[in-house]
TrEMBL record:
Pfam assignment, any one: Response_reg
Response regulatory domain mapped to chain residues: 14-128
Lineage: Bacteria, Pseudomonadati, Pseudomonadota, Alphaproteobacteria, Hyphomicrobiales
Phosphoprotein in keyword set: yes
Modification 4-aspartylphosphate, positions: 63
CDD domains reported in the protein's UniProt record: REC_RegA-like (cd17563)
Xref: PANTHER family: PROTEIN PILG, STRESS RESPONSE REGULATOR PROTEIN 1
SUPFAM superfamilies, per database record: CheY-like (SSF52172)
Organism whose genome encodes this protein: Mesorhizobium marinum
Protein name: ActR/PrrA/RegA family redox response regulator transcription factor
Keyword set, alphabetical order: DNA-binding, Phosphoprotein, Transcription, Transcription regulation, Two-component regulatory system
InterPro entries for the chain: ActR_PrrA_rreg (IPR047772), Bact_response_regulator (IPR050595), CheY-like_superfamily (IPR011006), Sig_transdc_resp-reg_receiver (IPR001789)
Length: 184
């Protein structure tokens, strides 16, 4: 079976999706229900840990950074309740250290945002040893840079001066970048 072929959900189809981006959470939940999962959602670490302890899911999709903490705490809680759970971490702030920690805690994959429902479904249902196909249309370097700037800008609560300081960039340069449309 290749990464492009449709996959099947085997056995228990319970899926916990944890993300503090409500529109994304709603869209992903709908998409996963359409693919046969029994979906439950949570918008915080606290809510997700309570749900994971009450009913450990067979599958989980967990955002790394949540408003009240780190998604790795959710991964650990899921693993404590069910060691065969298949968990995928989503993040816009990927780095090697957190990816390694996520895998050590039991995550089976680590996807960077924006990830679509097909990518997430493939990661959840991929068999052991099966490799993911390289992306058909990866983001351009300009798009990756723009996405990073946007994330830092949001983290700084849309404060241009603070964002420019953290990015080690001149404030006016940042203002020009923010005024432009996103590159493809």
């Amino acid at each position: 079976m290749t990464a492009d072929e449709p996959h099947e959900i085997s056995g228990d189809a319970s899926l916990l999706i944890v993300d503090d981006d409500k529109p994304f959470l709603t869209r992903l939940a709908r998409a996963m229900e359409g693919r046969g999962f029994d979906v439950d959602t949570a918008e915080s670490v606290e809510e997700a840990v309570v749900k994971a302890r009450a009913r450990p899911p067979a599958y989980a999709v967990v955002d790394m950074r949540l408003g009240d903490g780190n998604g790795l705490d959710v991964v650990a809680a899921i693993r404590d309740g069910r060691d065969d759970a298949r968990t995928v971490i989503l993040t816009g702030y990927g780095n090697i250290a957190t990816a390694v920690t996520a895998v050590k805690l039991g995550a089976i994959d680590y996807l960077s945002k924006p990830a679509d429902a097909d990518d997430i479904f493939a990661a959840l249902t991929r068999t052991t040893g099966e490799r993911a196909a390289p992306p058909e249309n990866p983001m351009s370097a300009d798009r990756v840079r723009w996405e990073h700037i946007q994330r830092v800008y949001e983290m700084c609560e849309r404060n241009v001066s603070e964002t420019a300081r953290r990015l080690n960039m001149h404030r006016r340069t940042l203002q020009r970048i923010l005024a432009k449309r996103a590159p493809r």
